[in-house]
Amino acid sequence: MSEFELSTLIMVVMLLAALGGYSYWQIMRAQRSQRPARKAKTKGQAGFYDKGHEETLIGEFESDIAPHSSSSVAAKMAQAPVASDIYVRSQMPPVVMPRDVASIKSIHTTEPAFSKTEKIEKTEDLSDVASHSSEPITQETEAASVVELESNVIDGAVDESTELSELNQPVAPTDSIASIDDVESSEPISTEPTESTEAMLNEEEKIAEDPQFFSQQDLTEQATLSVFEPLIRFSSWVDSTHPEPIYAIDGVLDLMVSQPKNAQDIERALYDLRLDTDLPLKLFGLRAGQVAAMHSDNPNAARQWLPLEMGALYSGLRLTLQLANAAEYADSQLIHDWFELAQRLAKRLAAHVSAWPDPAALANYALYLHDLSKRLGAPMVVQLCKPQGLWPAYEVHQQMTQWGLQLDENGQYVARHANGRILYRVLNDVNNPRAQEFFRDTLATMHVHTLSFCLDVSRVEVSYQAEQRLWHDMNQLAYALQANWCNSVGHDISSDALFTHAAEHIPAYIQQLATLGVPAGSITMKRLLQGSTV
């Protein structure tokens, strides 16, 4: 260590020692300045009950006793020796304020804590003593009785002053807040329900009687019924509007050719004819030799409109336009453009249009089909949710494949009939836009919380009994994965109530579809729902 570092260290030590000595001196100085104040405070508390205060207490009791005693006794009491003050002061107990009394008695009152009734009882006792002393006595006994009476009065004064010292703290007199008599005279604590408790009970009864109050069982029942909301909503619409049955979903224009044309000529006539729409536009042909069946009375001799084939001759053409689906419909402008396309084709083939339908009626009918397809495009959604945590995706995949579901190219599990038709689909939480689909390359690192089972009753034929397969598979998966049954928004439902509602609403819905002319699972139904995004 260098000389400079050593000197610096010595200076630091000296500064710290000086700072410590100065702090110690300040502490000792503060303690010495506080000692007189502490002594004065202790002395003031010890001498609080001085002679004048004791004389005041004894004088108050003497004034209460004087009217009830004889004149001779009162005179003797007035001549009591001053030594009694020394006796009272020497027998005075230390002043102690009980915590329970201090909490009840106000510190702003100087009145005695005992009531007037207690005063009267005490003065009556003293008056009895005075009445006995008023009888004729001798000079010797008179002095003894006076001394005895004085001692009794002094003892009573001491006892009562002790009570006062325990119950009162003499300070500047102010308004009294409460007293022991008020507390003692108050009604006893009752165990019966108070007004606030009764009000709470009445409120609970009102809530129970309120028709808008729902128990957990009621909420579960409503959540279960909401699974069939698309079917119930459609049935309500049918019952209220009574829609007309659907006879077709295509607009038809028939072109009759005077001279049969082959398929190559027809294709050359169509090369630059376009219609700006996503609705299906198709062309069918009537082969030559079948025109005679047009006006035949035999219903089995109906013409056969078939797709065009190379090398065949056709004497008639049918241009069809699907009027509506779930995505769009043919409005008045589109129908007008379709009519123009048919006129240009007829001109090129030297044909004529056999009949022109009413464009306004077609437009209204197209709008009706579009509205119907939108109402039919809502599937039922039932979900299995994990109560806590997440499932590994590979575990879900194992259970799905065990019960016959297949993972398709869209990342969805599908349940198929024996003929390959899809019955229902399983998605990863349809309400979560950030949920990933089930792709094989992500199953090892993926986790799942909700499995959404989607059944579109309108797309599946009745004979497949897709709902029965769905309930069976969901039961098995819920048991294997320890999952809860939920509706489309994640509210808990009852599986038993779900089966009961399904047996009621699904058959009624299927019957209404058949009455409208679009049976469940039919080609017409599938074409109407073709543009559905659900």
TrEMBL record:
Species name: Hydromonas duriensis
Protein name: ZipA-like protein with FtsZ-binding domain
Database matches in InterPro entries: ZipA_FtsZ-bd_C_sf
Composition bias type Polar residues, residue spans: 130-142
Region (Disordered): 114-143
A single GO BP: cell septum assembly
Source lineage: Bacteria, Pseudomonadati, Pseudomonadota, Betaproteobacteria, Burkholderiales
Comp. bias regions, Basic and acidic residues: 116-125
Keywords per UniProt: Membrane, Transmembrane, Transmembrane helix
Transmembrane regions: 6-25
Alphabetized Gene3D superfamilies for the sequence: ZipA, C-terminal FtsZ-binding domain (3.30.1400.10)
